[in-house]
């Protein structure tokens, strides 16, 4: 969700037809998960064999290679040069609030992002403390969630493309992540191992699978000459969710337990889903 996301959204919006954006943007988002999987497999082995410093060196070398590759490709895809946009806070807010549908996307992205980062960072602790899982079992459950996220990024994009209903798909995703977080937070310990793993996979399918459809919807609604700016403005709200989630989870964990924290995240995700419902429909004209 860094600077590459608005840039890639602006580029892909020019290269891909509107009907295929949801799927293509979702394919683009799988690079995040594939990179995380590759890093999880390769970097520990590099650290053991050569030392931790070589992990950073390997990542830096790959980044330099990517810079060279993108610079080589840039002339073929460079758009028309325009003056740099005004990026102060007021201009960002204007981009988001000008269209109620975009504003509701930004609002929903805050709890969705909070849910995603909490799944990726706190789920193993939830498993060992609240679900009765051993550390290895909790890691396996998180692996199921990550696999679900990878499938979700492709699957939800395909469904949104086939149905031509990206906002409806986002609503289903929001309801799904709220259900999974509430179930695991309130009663996850009573589930069998197979059901815990199945719910974890569904949790990942929703909480980690929404990004591509979400960004494609921003690109669909944004002014076509300001897709990059609008994406960046909406992702500013998403970052607020990422920043707030650790503090919220930590406070609620100390007061009522980690299960209660995930239930609270479920309630927030449900509020975000209601915002999407209120923010318009797929066939609403701009």
From TrEMBL:
<dbReference type="Pfam" id="PF07690">
    <property type="entry name" value="MFS_1"/>
</dbReference>
<feature type="transmembrane region" description="Helical">
    <location>
        <begin position="231"/>
        <end position="252"/>
    </location>
</feature>
<keyword id="KW-0812">Transmembrane</keyword>
<dbReference type="InterPro" id="IPR052952">
    <property type="entry name" value="MFS-Transporter"/>
</dbReference>
<feature type="transmembrane region" description="Helical">
    <location>
        <begin position="198"/>
        <end position="219"/>
    </location>
</feature>
<dbReference type="GO" id="GO:0022857">
    <property type="term" value="F:transmembrane transporter activity"/>
</dbReference>
<feature type="transmembrane region" description="Helical">
    <location>
        <begin position="258"/>
        <end position="278"/>
    </location>
</feature>
<keyword id="KW-1133">Transmembrane helix</keyword>
<feature type="transmembrane region" description="Helical">
    <location>
        <begin position="138"/>
        <end position="156"/>
    </location>
</feature>
<feature type="transmembrane region" description="Helical">
    <location>
        <begin position="168"/>
        <end position="186"/>
    </location>
</feature>
<dbReference type="InterPro" id="IPR020846">
    <property type="entry name" value="MFS_dom"/>
</dbReference>
<protein>
    <recommendedName>
        <fullName>Major facilitator superfamily (MFS) profile domain-containing protein</fullName>
    </recommendedName>
</protein>
<dbReference type="InterPro" id="IPR011701">
    <property type="entry name" value="MFS"/>
</dbReference>
<dbReference type="InterPro" id="IPR036259">
    <property type="entry name" value="MFS_trans_sf"/>
</dbReference>
<feature type="transmembrane region" description="Helical">
    <location>
        <begin position="42"/>
        <end position="70"/>
    </location>
</feature>
<feature type="transmembrane region" description="Helical">
    <location>
        <begin position="102"/>
        <end position="126"/>
    </location>
</feature>
<keyword id="KW-0472">Membrane</keyword>
<feature type="domain" description="Major facilitator superfamily (MFS) profile">
    <location>
        <begin position="1"/>
        <end position="284"/>
    </location>
</feature>
